[in-house]
Amino acid sequence: MAIYDHSKYVSLTMEFRCNLKCVHCMIEGTMDRLAPESDESFAELLEHNRRTRQWSGLILTGSEITLRRDLPDLARRARAAGFEHVRIQTHGMHLGRRSYAETLVAAGVDEFFVSVAGCDAATHDAITTVRGSFDKTLRGLEILDEHPDVATITNTVVTAQSYLLLPAVVERLAHLKRLTQMEFWVYWPMQEGDEKGLIANHLDILPFLKEAAAKARALGRAVEIKNFPECLLEEDGALLMNDQPQLYIDPAFWDEFSRNGFYQCPFRQQCRSTQCLGLNTAYIKKYGDHADRLHPI
User: Fold this and answer.
1) 291 — alpha (psi -120 to 50), left (phi > 0) or beta?
2) Is 184:211 a contact under the CB 8 Å cutoff?
């Protein structure tokens, strides 16, 4: 089961630059026109939470939040405003520099949500399209692992390029002591078709996803699976968690997001699942609606 309560976190998108070019990036075509949250908005949110204590955790995110030079200062300000936890969502490369990673920890960042695209340098770097990115990210996770008050979370996007790797990703990170949760986000394009050919068939993904989840849980990790039909997961259905923290982001993002066409399922009217997003438009165009395999919860 998940160990983080999404309702107790708020997420701010504070950057729209990135120094990776991941093949599965959902916003690569919009980064140049989406605006990060302003410093004024950041200050207003801190003051709001200082008064209300609405959230206990703040997530600082973006295309790559570590490109902000003032990130340590943002973390210090958040802690001073009463946030019990400050998390950053990152590709993790810059954490491979010990001085930088320890500066963030000293500033009050105690949770690190780190993207791991593959199980080794060859597979990870092929997806991020930046040579050396895996070694830096892994080194960053290992540096954070030395800090007893730090928790790490990993996320792996599940595509046609990565689904076969999922159990090996878990195995490669098995040595990390502070890795509390592993998340597997099944890819969808923010448009009506799969122009990149990255959508994998859920039926092909399923055995590798279940094996990875079992291996992670055997290591004592919590697991979250996102954007996968709950009924196909069977006894692992409780691992599906599509809840998210409240997100502050440029409203133009939602115009793009709405194109995915979630909640399409032959059994939507009969199903009682509170987490399943069903199928999306691009998936159905490619693989159909799996009416012979899906069933209502």
Assistant:
1) alpha
2) no
